[in-house]
Amino acid sequence: MSPTFIFFCFYQYSFLLNTGFQRIQRYNAICRIQNIYEGNSEIDDNV
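Predicted structure:
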């Protein structure tokens, strides 16, 4: 396997991780907005 191939795989993998992490953060933000909207003052900061 050439180094460029390994780098490309690592790049793709990190890209997938980043998009997944951003999706989770966006979902958490939506949950927090819903909690605030429903009048729940207890917000979990655990990610």
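Summary: The longest helix spans residues 3-37.
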